[in-house]
Amino acid sequence: MNLSLITPVYNEQDNLPFLFESIYNVMNSLDQSWEVILVDDGSRDNSLSVLKEYAQKDPLHIRVISFRRNFGQTAAIAAGLDYAQGETIVLLDADMQNDPADIPMMLAKLDEGYDLVSGWRKSRKDNAVTRNFPSMLANRLISRVTGVHLHDYGCTLKAYRRDVLEGFRLYGEMHRFIPVYASSVGAKITEVQVNHHPRKFGKTKYGLERTAKVVLDLFTVKFLVAFSSKPIYLFGGTGGFLMIIGAAIMIYLLVRRLYFLVSVTGSPLFQVSAMLFTLGFQSMLMGLIAELLVRTYHESQRKPTYS
Questions:
Q1: Cα dist from 152 to 138, 144, 156, 272, whole Å
Q2: DSSP bridge pairs for 39
Q3: pTM over 0.85
C-alpha cells in the first residue's frame, strides 16, 4: 500500500457525503494504491451508519474503525496509525474545513525529500476571538519551547513518511505535537499553505479550554523530548540550584552571626535555607531514581537510544 489517509470522525453525518466525494476525486487521480481509514470516535448521530454504507460499497479502499465511546482525536489518530498499511500517511479532518485537494501538493513535497509536510491554514475561516487568536499564541509558544517552528500546529492536514511515526506512541491530547516527536527522531520537516473553508454543517468540538490543555501538554512534551533519556539533568540541575541557594543563605546567616552577633536560628531565613537544601537533595535523589527507571525501560524492552 502506497498511501493511507486517516480521518477521525465525530458527529459529522452531514459532511461525510461531501468528504467522500472530495476524497475520491483526489485519490482516483493519483497513480498509486491507496486506502482511507475512517475512525468513528463514538459518534452520537448517524455517522457510523454512513461510514458502514460507504465501506460496504468499496471495501477495497474504505476501512472503518468504530470506538465504543468517545476517546478523543488523539486516540482516533493512534488507532488509524495502528491499522494503516501505507508507506505514506496523511491525516485529514472530516469536517470539510481541510481540503483534500491539497493532498497531491503535500505528497509532491514528500517526494522532494521531506519526511513530514505540515499544513498551514494562513487564511483560516474560524472565529477570530475564540479560535484564531488563542491558536496563534499557542503556536508561537510551542515553537519557542520546542524549537520546531511551525505556524499552525493545530492543522490536522499533514503528510508523513511512515518511519518517522514509529518511534513513539500518542497519549492524551498529543496529536498536535507529532511534528515535535518526529523532529526528535531526525525527521526533515517543512510547512506549506493549505486551503481552509468555513464549516457548513455541525459545530466545532473545540473552545477556549483547548488552549489551556495545549500549555499543560507542552510541559509533558518538553520533558519527554529533552529529558526522557537523561532525567538527572532536569532533577539534578534543579536540585543543585536549590542547594546552592540554601547554602548561600546559610553562609550569609553565619557571617552575620560572627560579625554582628545576630542569631542564626531566630531568623526566618534559617528555615528557608533548610527547606531549600532539603528540597534540592530530594530532587537529586528523584533524578537518580528516574535514571534507574529510564535504564530499566530501555534494557527490558531493548529500546535503542538512537534513531
A1: 9, 13, 9, 44
A2: 8, 65
A3: no
Nearest-10 Cα torsion for 53, 54, 59, 63: -100
CA-nearest of 146, 145, 150 to 135 is 150
Average pLDDT of every residue of the chain: 90
Is 6 within 8 Å of 62 (Cβ atoms)?
A: no
Task: DSSP for 136-169, please give it.
Answer: HHHHHHHHHHHS---S-TT---EEEEGGGGTT--
Q: What's the alpha-carbon Rg for the chain, to the nearest Å?
A: 25
198 Cβ neighbours under 8 A, 6+ residues apart: 97, 125, 126
Q: Among all chains, which residue has been given the C-alpha cell 465511546? A: 69
Q: How far is CA 154 from CA 99, 118, 137, 166, 226, in A?
A: 15, 10, 12, 21, 22
Segments making up each domain of the chain, as ranges: 3-226, 232-300
Segment 279-295 mean pLDDT? 93
CATH code of domain 3-226? 3.90.550.10
- Do the strands 3-9 and 88-91 form a parallel or antiparallel pair, or are they unpaired? parallel
Write down the pLDDT at residue 107: 95
pLDDT digit string, tens, across residues 16-38: 999 999 999 999 999 899 999 99
For residue 26, the SS3 value is helix
The helix/strand count (H/E) of the chain reads as 9, 7
Return the SS3 of 172.
Answer: coil
- Asked if 66 contacts 106 with a C-beta cutoff of 8 angstroms, the reply is no
